[in-house]
């Protein structure tokens, strides 16, 4: 191998030489880079090149009829070079690379095998990662299928229960109507005496109360919202969800069965917003909204106040209105509703009375003052 380089450029291509990456001819002392010398980097590191001769010096050796000599003199003294040649700036032909040795080919084969093994390991790792991802994805799909199946079963169960409840309620309502019609028919008969009329009236009153209680039970998941601002083209469902969030109760649209306004349009009602009737999918959501509304004592909305109450039947709503008016006259402090029933109390610590009929009204407040 060559020692220190006395020249800065390659004698073949005249390019700058890299430190220790060149060969020095043992005859002419010219230096050549590895590309011009036709030597690979692996062979250059693996062998000793102290006795290396350049192609020009090899061609000066006595000829022995070797046809593989890189340069041969032709007719007229013209030198014919085999293979690809390079021209130096001075017009001299570049040196033809020397053929690779068996050891260089061996090192090239080893390097190629190592690169192939690395690529094979990378491909195997990627395939293993893909298999793991597929197993995880398959597990997630199976879990999702199980949840969907459970939801289908729950929905089917709820539908069957709802159908049975509706059928039972329809049957009872039909029986009540038949009984009421029978009572009214008997009441209108010509042979009815005074005692029978009074008894029939009591029976009709009892039946009406039972029908009213049934109707009130059907409204246990309903709310009535008053003074909620109304706008043209509004989404009542969205307004209800926004109001619930202001009360601190998270409410999604899927939790609401329906939400609509009832009553005369604002133009016909003097510009006053119509009340909103809401039915929730679960009763405990209605109870949470009522508790939050009682704590807030009316929620401010656009400069006004919004009131949230439980929904009452027409009969109970009229009775509650009469009770409130009477409490205002007699200066009773408390009147409220709970699960469709009306309650009153004169003051703190006083007895609580339940009013469910005009008879209870007379019993608690007495006959009206003349």
UniProtKB/TrEMBL annotation:
Domain of life: Eukaryota
UniProt entry keywords in alphabetical sequence: Coiled coil
Spans traversing the lipid bilayer: none
Pfam families the record matches: Baculo_FP_2nd
Region (Disordered): 60-93
Gene3D superfamilies in alphabetical order: 1.20.5.340
UniProt entry tagged with the keyword Nuclease: no
The keyword Coiled coil appears for this protein: yes
Coiled coil: 127-161
Residues in FP protein C-terminal domain copies: 313-361
Full protein name: FP protein C-terminal domain-containing protein
Organism listed in the record: Loxostege sticticalis
Species lineage: Eukaryota, Metazoa, Ecdysozoa, Arthropoda, Hexapoda
